[in-house]
Amino acid sequence: MHTVSLRAECDLAIVGGGILGLATAREMLLRRPGAVVVVLERERELARHQTGRNSGVIHAGIYYAPGSLKARLCVDGARGLYAYCEEHGVRVEKRGKLIVARDESELPRLDELERRGRANEVPGLRRVDADGLREIEPHARGAAALHSPETGVVDFAEVARSFAADFQAAGGHIELGHRATVAEVRGRARFAVFCAGSAADTLAVEAGADPDPRIVPFRGAYLKLRPEKSELVRGLIYPVPDPDLPFLGVHISRHIDGNISLGPSALLAPNRLVRSLAWPGTWRMARRWWRTGITEIVHAVSARRFAREAADYVPELDPGDFTPWYAGVRAQAVARDGRLVDDFVISETERALHVRNAPSPAATSSLALARLIADRVERSLD
Ligand SMILES: Cc1cc2nc3c(=O)[nH]c(=O)nc-3n(C[C@H](O)[C@H](O)[C@H](O)COP(=O)(O)OP(=O)(O)OC[C@H]3O[C@@H](n4cnc5c(N)ncnc54)[C@H](O)[C@@H]3O)c2cc1C
């Protein structure tokens, strides 16, 4: 790999070799061929964190508040990502998704999701009844469902590596094993973009930004279904989520490699627990959650209970069919007042942009988010 360090002057430094940093780096060089752009990644390989440890779902844009960045960039981003993958030979499958209301009590929330999906112009979205949902997923049960045929699966780490290859082919430089600091980047680059996932807040504060919001990392663990049972699930089966939470709920997913997962749970990441608990927003958030009774936390504590609830959606699934699989840590911003920041947030400091909140569906939205970030970088550079 061709490496040029920040010891040389550069026009733009991008901190973070996840899907967002790489999509942004690629976009900037497509716009400004000949510019000196460097990606700095502290790990020895790309896409080690959120980008390599997620559900792998190309979301269609159903859940997000109409008019929000998430709504707009998810729909645009998914469209762009399918086209990109087709053009670059990255494997994707549009397996479709069902959001299942287990009983009548969940129908009002399903109605609200349908309203949002239509407002966001999600392609192909339709409502199905109990029989209709069994035509799509013969082993699933429920009172009604929303069917999104355009929801698909991909390996986002593979997408990120493909963005990196485009970037390098256009003359970009990637330095692995390089933990960047704000002082170093400021000293040597004209402008910087921080796409640092769970380190986003620390680096932004180092650059003089407000400490609010803080990243509170949530560990999301997945269970894997025994391959002998894999014919029970064709695509993606999701619950109706709590509309007040940015998490989509524990889902059953057929991945691009054919494995079926159940997850993710949500538990405050143990390695950053002390730091998370020092943030007043964490306590305010927790107080609110105990009232709404967030099930992902219960699931994180009891894998068996977690697996048992899968049978609410697919009765033939048994807790004994699942074994522990991988886990990913979500970099979720939490405001001082305890609010989980819902939308994507990008803020500015001196000669830098900071991605302060880019949870799901940021991988789906990566090409569209990169365009938005690049517009802002160009405005600042000019
Ligand atoms: C459990 C889980 C499930 C998800 N499911 C989906 C899904 O199905 N669909 C979807 O669209 N999205 C999903 N997401 C969200 C998606 O994975 C993220 O939004 C996306 O990967 C964010 O990309 P990123 O580049 O910002 O972050 P990351 O991939 O976390 O990359 C940040 C990088 O910055 C590097 N870094 C940090 N500090 C420094 C430093 N000082 N110097 C150099 N490098 C540094 C880190 O090493 C890391 O590689 C999920 C996330 C999780 C965790």
Can you characterise this structure?
This protein has 382 residues and is an alpha/beta fold. 35% of the residues lie in helices and 24% in strands. The protein has twelve helices and 18 strands. The chain has helices at 19-31, 69-88, 107-119, 130-136, 156-169, 182-188, 200-206, 273-277, 280-292, 295-301, 303-313, 366-381, and strands at 10-15, 37-40, 57-58, 92-93, 97-101, 126-129, 144-148, 152-154, 173-175, 189-194, 214-225, 236-239, 251-254, 260-263, 267-268, 322-334, 345-349, 352-357. Strands 5, 6, 7, 11, 12, 13, 14, 15 and 16 form a nine-stranded mixed beta sheet that branches. Helix 1 (19-31) crosses helix 12 (366-381) and helix 10 (295-301) packs across helix 11 (303-313). The longest helix has 20 residues, at 69-88. The chain binds flavin-adenine dinucleotide (FAD). The site of flavin-adenine dinucleotide (FAD) has 40 residues, from helix 1 and strand 16.
Helix and strand arrangement:
Layout: E1 10-15, H1 19-31, E2 37-40, E3 57-58, H2 69-88, E4 92-93, E5 97-101, H3 107-119, E6 126-129, H4 130-136, E7 144-148, E8 152-154, H5 156-169, E9 173-175, H6 182-188, E10 189-194, H7 200-206, E11 214-225, E12 236-239, E13 251-254, E14 260-263, E15 267-268, H8 273-277, H9 280-292, H10 295-301, H11 303-313, E16 322-334, E17 345-349, E18 352-357, H12 366-381
